[in-house]
């Protein structure tokens, strides 16, 4: 049964140190960029974007001064595509992998 499940490629939880006052602002600004670009996303407790390759999530921690990201894809190449997309949204804030 287990062997029949589709293979998924995912990141561990990735932490980006971020000023307490900025972490929620950054997530809000990324949500706005996604809306402006008409990218379908869920904005409950951060941002979750679904793509043909998989999905990515970015949220502000409520207990630490960090942003948290996760990604999951159906291929290793798809995971790299998702990581690049997240990194492109974080680059203006000088946050990177």
The helix-and-strand class reads alpha+beta
Reported for the largest beta sheet, the result is: 6 strands, antiparallel
Radius of gyration: 14 Å
Order of helices and strands, N to C? Answer: EEHEEEEH
Cα-to-Cα separation, first versus last residue: 35 Å
Number of strands: 6
Portion in beta strands: 25-35%
What form results from the Cα inertia axes? globular
> What is the number of helical segments per DSSP (H or I, 4+ residues)?
2
Uncertain ranges: none
Binned, the helix content reads 25-40%
How confident overall, as mean pLDDT? 95
Q: What oligomeric state do the depicted chains represent?
A: single chain
What does this structure look like?
The chain is α+β, with helices and mostly antiparallel strands and 97 residues long. Helix content is 30%, strand content 29%. It has 2 helices and 6 strands. Strands 1, 2, 3, 4, 5 and 6 form a 6-stranded antiparallel β-sheet that branches. Strand 4 and strand 5 form a beta hairpin. The radius of gyration is 14 Å and the shape is globular. 21% of the residues are buried.
